[in-house]
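Box S1 | Example of a co-folding query
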Amino acid sequence: MKIVYTDNNATTKVADEVIEEMLPYFGELYGNPSSMHTFGDKVDKKLKQARQRVADLINADPDEIVFTSCGTESDNSAIFSAINAFPEKKHIITSKVEHPAINKLYQHLQETKGYEVTFVPVDEKGLLDLDLLYDSMTDNTAIVSLMWANNETGVMFPIEDIAKKAGEKGILFHTDAVQAAGKISIDVKKCGVTMLSLSGHKIHAPKGVGVLYIKKGFKFSPYLIGGHQEKGRRGGTENTVSIIGLGKACELARENLSVMNTKVRELRDYLQKGILEAIPGSSVNGDLEQRLPNTLSIGFDAVEGESILLMLDRDGICASSGSACTSGSLEPSHVLMAMKVPFKSAHGSIRFSLSHYNTKEEMDIIITTLVPVIQTLRDMSPFWKDGKVI
Ligand code: PLP
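Box S1 (continued) | Returned holo structure for pyridoxal-5'-phosphate
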């Protein structure tokens, strides 16, 4: 069965070019980049190239790049470093729709370390309440951390404006750009963030490698304390093979940015239009403009997202739902709940997230498969009668 993979915000296929770049370093070139000998130095040189390639994707300097094990580690390291830098400041800010890598950490700091946390709300389109955000920034705020783009809806926050405001108030600003990287242009010099997180497996590199950009001048305190690797900012022998793959993936992502904003955007819009026209009682979650070009979160009235996913999976279509199975009850995700997406469609929300590997034929397969799937589920639904929700 042909797989139609539209779950790229969950993870991406490792690009063939990336695998090719990595292979020699799995095999004969296994040296430690910290070694003094020429054999290790060969790997060190390749690591330097990877650092440069990552830096080029976000217009950073190579020595502002620290390699980590994943986006989650980058996010955690940024926040811990900020609160270490200002131990007297006991207030931290984020939004209600962050990934658990930030959301859960903030809850942890609130519950166990006595931090006062402002979780800034969003409106029904997923856009941030900027007045509340700016009003909540005080002299007691250690850090503001906001995602650049939401993993479920693709909705983007105005990170450049927020970073500027935080800068004016002398507050550290971190952005989780795990979903934004490789999909929109990022220029850290222009936007002025203090720290920024990336993850390899969202941009066609392997899983288990991430990046923390740390602006020159910020006195970063390491989260992993150990050897002198990463200029003392992250102890532990580098995951050389994956970092080399990530470097290549960043180079490809830079080349493919225009494809993301033309071909991939057109495919997403084609899929969105096709579904909305073919299936009554369907609606897009999130702002239509301030949105990543590859993401479509769409709710279907009176059906369960998990049932849709299972039926699509039977036909080889990979997507994801906006629900989280918590203690036996299926609740809409915290993102859809924060947006106050109506109950009737929040439960039946599906996320399709595309990459440049997708085709128009695949979008047609999704649309033609989805129509009978939704019809079948609505025929069984107690909430659907005579072509509408009851
Ligand atoms: N932040 C966002 C917005 C994400 O979507 C993800 C992963 O889905 C992460 C952080 C965590 O990244 P990783 O899986 O590399 O830890």
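The longest strand covers residues 141-147. The chain has a mean pLDDT of 96.
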